[in-house]
Amino acid sequence: MNAKFAAGISQIDCDTEPLLNPFVHRLELNTTYEKIKTAILTLVLVPLRVGLICFIVVTGWMLATVGLMGVSEQELHERPLEGWRKSLKSIVAQLILCVYTVAGVKLKIVGRPCSKAEAPMVVLAPHSSFVDSVAMVYMGGPSIVAKGETASIPFFGKLINYTQPIYVWRDDPESRQKSVKEIINRATSSLDWPQILIFPEGTCTNRSCLISFKNGAFYPGVPIQPVCIRYPNKLDTVTWTWEGPSALKLLWLTLTQPTSHCEVEFLPVYRPSEAEKRDPKLFANNVRAVMAKALGIPVVDYTYSDCKMMTRAKEMNLPFAGSLVEVRKLRKKLGLEMTHIEDKLLESNGFICRDCSRVTFIEFVNLLRLQDNEQVALQLFRIYDKQNVGLIDLRDYLLGILATENNKTPLEIVKIALKLYDVNHNGKITADNFCKALCQTVGLTREQAMEIFDQVDRHQLGFVTFENFINYAQKRSDFHYLFSDTHDEKFLLKNGDITPNTNKKVD
Predict the structure, then answer these.
(1) Number of structural domains, the chain?
(2) Together in a domain, 266 and 315
(3) Which domain, by its residues, includes 263?
(4) Strands 224-230, 260-266: pairing kind
(5) Cis peptide before 126 (omega within 30 of 0)
């Protein structure tokens, strides 16, 4: 191993390329001036804006109600709106555009939006904010692909219905295929359907890169107009990611800004080649490359499943949950996905480290057998060495990896945590370690975990076993999810859906 690394992590001075995490956004009012200005404008500007926005939205909702009067849900999905209903929809779109003007959004348009005849499909990226919908209303209300639950949102559900969206129902296992079929039918239909607008990333990011595009917009094999969106503001109050400010905080801070700049660029229509028509993934990647070049940002192969994993990790309160996406990518670079070394360490007695709560970089590299790629290993180590002291708790790393791999059940995850925190390796878990294990897998507070420990340790032995805990949990209705086949049951029961910032916002 290189002597520079052997000298110790705190002495290392080498350049490692930072790994992008597009699902994290930091927003704080750092200066006294910003805090005072925000406080004043909260009292003066926000009430006026909220009142006007509510009036405009209610007016738009009333017009949309009139426009949809006499149209059944089936008719809405079988043929496009015509005549006065179509004209009224354009008026409603312009009215909702006024909402953004009232909110202080200063819109700049670059390029020209094309007609449906030129491009039946429109893809917009990067998707980072609820403000992105400004492009939709500017275009007159194209159809969007949205979750079925969107239709029930007060006021906005009616407005979205007026665009004749294509809904995806997550409780219907065939919904995705039906949606793709509907996209193809509309995109290739001779009827006067609106253009279809899709956010191909499928989730919100911080605009630092373009993540993987879903294939839905590219299955029809028709010309597509790529649309790029930017927010060139000094204070970014619009970016809404999986880890960061809640929607309510972002809305409040946006309304306290005198102006918020938004730039929408309509790129030239992209016409697929024969190879791209046959291969939607190739088509999607090539369009993404064009958009990334226009935006001046890289492409990174993150996916919606990464978001789903991170959200579950946060809901469980796994250590370093917000960094697990980065950890996954670095593990892939290091080839750890193939070696399953973490599983072997769990199975070994004591993980072959003297004190797993204080592991040095050299020990980390040796344990994971990473001598061949020291710089990437250093990136991985530094994620867990937040204080830059040259030491990490190896159990944080192992628990994050083992709990999110291979769709483990909740009970399996708890078992892993209890084994990791069994410092004496005899199956007897002390109170402190029991609390750590439960806090980092089922999201309990220390007080809650300690209360459970006392109830499990009825004979006051000072320790519990995994079997003791299982016997206790089986009698508690609030722990029934531990015995489900996957972690999804608890997740869906608690949160209702997979959304950024658990319990904070709805996408």
Answers:
(1) 2
(2) no
(3) 32-299
(4) antiparallel
(5) yes
